[in-house]
Every structure is written in C-alpha cells, then in structure tokens.
Amino acid sequence: KNMGRAFVYVILGGGVAAGYAALEFVNRGLSIGELCIISQEPVAPYERPALSKGFLLPEAPARLPSFHTCVGANEERLTPKWYKEHGIELILGTAVKSADVKRKTLLTATGETISYKILIVATGARALKLEEFGVTGSDAENVCYLRDIADANRLVDAIQSSPGGNAVVIGGGYIGMECAASLVINKINVTMVFPEEHCMARLLTSKIASYYEEYYKSKGVDFIKGTVLSSFDFDSDGKVTAVNLRDGRKISVDMVVVGIGIRPNTGLFEGQLTLEKGGIKVNGKLQSSNSSVYAIGDVAAFPVKIFGETRRLEHVDAARKSARHAVAAIMDVDKTDEFDYLPFFYSRVFTLSWQFYGDNAGEVVYYGDMSGGGTTFGAYWVSKGHLVGAFLEGGTKEEYEAIAKATRLRPEIEDLGELERQGLGFAVTT
Ligand code: FDA
Ligand code: NAD
C-alpha cells in the first residue's frame, strides 16, 4: 500500500521561483524535513535565462552547477548539497500527475502520494508546439525548442551538427531573438520568420524594434516578416531539410529553432482553483482561491498594484520576487504587506543590452542616439498624464536604476516635448 510522505511545505515545480523560495524559507528559519520540492527536471533549480545565452556560447559555455539559483541575483548558489544540508527534500525527475487541493495531496508519476499543509505551485510554463498551429514535425531531431536543460542540450547538438550551415528561427519574440544571436555567434546563417511586422511586437514599438533588426541584419541575419511556416520537407531519416512558408517561399535548412510563445502549466488545478489570464489567480500575498495553495512565477496571475490590475508576467525577476513574497507571507503573515511589484524585463544579445520597467501603454517619447551599432537610447511611455514605462538600451547601472525609480514614482508629465528634450536626464533627476 502507498504510504506516501507528509511535509509542512511543498513546492511543486523546481525552476527559478522554487529556488528563490527555498532560499527565502531557509533565511527565515526552516526546520529540517519541513520542505520538499518536486520537479520533473532531473537537476536542482537553476537560472533558466542562461539557457539562451551563456549555455549556447561556442567558447567556455555555462554548464551546471555554475548557474544554479540564486546566482542570478548575486546570492548563494544552491547546489544539491545545500538542499541536503538544510534538510530540504529534493524529489527530482518526478512529475506530479494529479493534485487534490481538498485532501491536500499530490500524486507523483512514481505512484507516491505526497501531502502538504501549504502548497506553493511553481510549475512555470511549457513551450507552445507547432502542432498547435497545424504544422507537424516538432519531433524531428533538428527541430529545437528551448525551455529546459534537455532542450538546451538538444539545441547545442544541433548547432554542433550544422557548422557553417543554415538555420531558420520561427518566432520573433524573446527566444527567437536571443537564439538567433547565439546561432550567429556559432557561425550559423540565420533567417528569422515571424507573422508580425517587427520583432518583439508584444513589448517594443516598430521604431525600437527596427534598431535591433538593423543590428541583426548587419550580422547577416535575414528577416521574413508577415508570414508563418506552413510545413517542413523531410529527408529519409526524418530530418527537416526545408521550411515552406505560407507566402510560397521555401528555405533550405540544417536546423530549425522554434520560439512561438508559452502556456502556463495550470492543468493540475483546472476546476480546483480560480484561473485568470491563463494563470492561477492569486491575491497580494500570492495566495490562490484555496487558502492553503500559493502560486508564484510564470504560472501566477497576481495583482500589479501600480497598474491596478491582475497580470501574469513571464520574466525571471517576477519569478524571484513573487517567490520571496509568498514565503514571507506564509512564514510571517502579520509583517507582510501586499506584493507591490514593478514589472521589469531585460534582454542581452551580442553586445547589446536593454532594460524595461513598467507598462508599454500610451504615448511614446524617444531620446538618445538610435543610429545603431551599440549606441545609447531610450523611450518613455506616458499614459493619462503619467510616466508609466521606461526603456533603455546601452545604459549604465546607475542609469537603469534611475529609469526604474522614475517609473516607480509615476511622475505627472505635462509636456511631452519637454520630456523629449530632457531625455535620460529626466529619469536621472527625478
Ligand atoms: P520555471 O519554468 O523556471 O520552472 C517550472 C518548473 O516546474 C520546471 O522545473 C518544470 O519541470 C516543473 N514542473 C512543471 N510541471 C510539473 C509537474 N507537473 N510536476 C513536476 N514538476 C513540474 N526572463 C527574463 O526576465 N530574462 C531573461 O533573459 C530570460 N531568459 C529566458 C531564457 C529561456 C531559454 C527561457 C525558457 C526563459 C527565459 N526567461 C527570461 C523567462 C524566465 O526564465 C521565466 O520567467 C522563469 O523561469 C519562471 O520561473 P518559474 O519558476 O515560474 O518557472
Ligand atoms: P514570446 O511570447 O516572447 O514570442 C512569441 C513569438 O511567437 C511572437 O513574437 C511571434 O513572432 C511568434 N509567433 C506567434 N504565433 C506564431 C505562429 N503561428 N507562427 C510563427 N510564429 C509565431 O515567446 P518566446 O519567444 O517563445 O519565449 C518563451 C518564454 O520565454 C516567454 O515567456 C518569454 O518571456 C521567456 N523568455 C524571456 C526572455 C527574456 O526575458 N529576456 C528570454 C527568453 C525567453
């Protein structure tokens, strides 16, 4: 008979949010044997952003254990030994197959029942598959997605099997842009294909996007915009040899990278917890509609106080901070306020680097030198008379801190022309 194990706290999912939550538990005084982390992945929590950056470098690539959490926030690196020393049970390589929030139990793929007093759902998200858009071929060995270490190893194999070859990158979002840059650095010729008029359409204006597209073109990247993939051609081994586009074009390839968005992993809780915006709806303490269940990271839809609305954010800083806040609320509810989070996104490609804070709503004011090739420029978003968002490429640490602080303060903006004249100086002096 299945006896199972019981814990006070269980974190379901072993990604970024799980790692930061574990550190916060320990910092606040966790007892031996109270906490367990269950993860489908075979390794302890790590900084996922490394997979599209350092992990793909041709020289001295980043490999575990170097990027376990929480090195991304310049904090302790939590190796499997650390979890052991702190009496935290790491159940790795184990998927949870079902959850029962009334009984407070989880059932694993190995048939074990794990019970909890408090559950933290940190299941993140899964990459959308081409099949969901009616295209078959995702299983071909030279078609790569990128969500976890297994995907990243597969991508490295494909890169190493295609020296000097041709790649098509499907999707013009974060994965598409970061992987395209990594492929170029590995001397692979890249064609990017996406349906929008410009890259990074969810966040960037066409003017900012064109700066990055011009930079990529100068590195030899081709852009095919406003169309999507319709099918693949395969060789007798089942490898993809060409990509057929809906506009009739055919592109020969050695490999394909797909980054067409994600879906949060909410499946275990459908019909048991309230969902919103594709995620698990939580309050300002990261607590779901069931008071014993919290949700953090990509899977959580939480109230973003500064915008007065519930959002789900798919970025590492939100994962780290929501994790810490949830643990604070669990262990010290009286001293923990509502989560008050300023959305923060960033990316690094080639030698370029940008940060964005707040919301990309309203009118846009640009400043700086957008002529290309590693210059410094930025933009502000102004909505209903207030500064609500700020973007900066090529800034210094102090300048990034300044745009974050200015966005947090939501200053009133009366004259857009004056804001444009002041440019970065506005944030620095606010
Ligand atoms: P995360 O996906 O990290 O972890 C979820 C974990 O739950 C996984 O280990 C998964 O296996 C496990 N799991 C799911 N279902 C399970 C089940 N049923 N049973 C057991 N385990 C289960 N963001 C950013 O701000 N800047 C950046 O530069 C990047 N770069 C970047 C690169 C790449 C390649 C990716 C894929 C993503 C990024 N991101 C990013 C996004 C960032 O990594 C993301 O927001 C966080 O990883 C979210 O952390 P979570 O812990 O919520 O999910
Ligand atoms: P994304 O949402 O950033 O971009 C998805 C892209 O898919 C869109 O830009 C669009 O061009 C494309 N697309 C949509 N439908 C398509 C279709 N039918 N055919 C072809 N293309 C289509 O998602 P992503 O790039 O896949 O990234 C996955 C996740 O990883 C996101 O949560 C993202 O935030 C995260 N991530 C973040 C960073 C970062 O913050 N620097 C870096 C890498 C990944």
UniProtKB/TrEMBL annotation:
Keywords: FAD, Flavoprotein, Membrane, NAD, Oxidoreductase, Redox-active center, Transmembrane, Transmembrane helix. Its EC number is 1.6.5.4. One of its GO terms (cellular component) is cytoplasm. The chain crosses the membrane at residues 6-23. It is an enzyme of class 1 (oxidoreductase). Its cofactor is FAD. Residues 342-427 form the Monodehydroascorbate reductase 3-like C-terminal domain. Residues 9-323 form the FAD/NAD(P)-binding domain. GO terms for molecular function: monodehydroascorbate reductase (NADH) activity. Belongs to the FAD-dependent oxidoreductase family. This is monodehydroascorbate reductase (NADH). It comes from Crotalaria pallida.
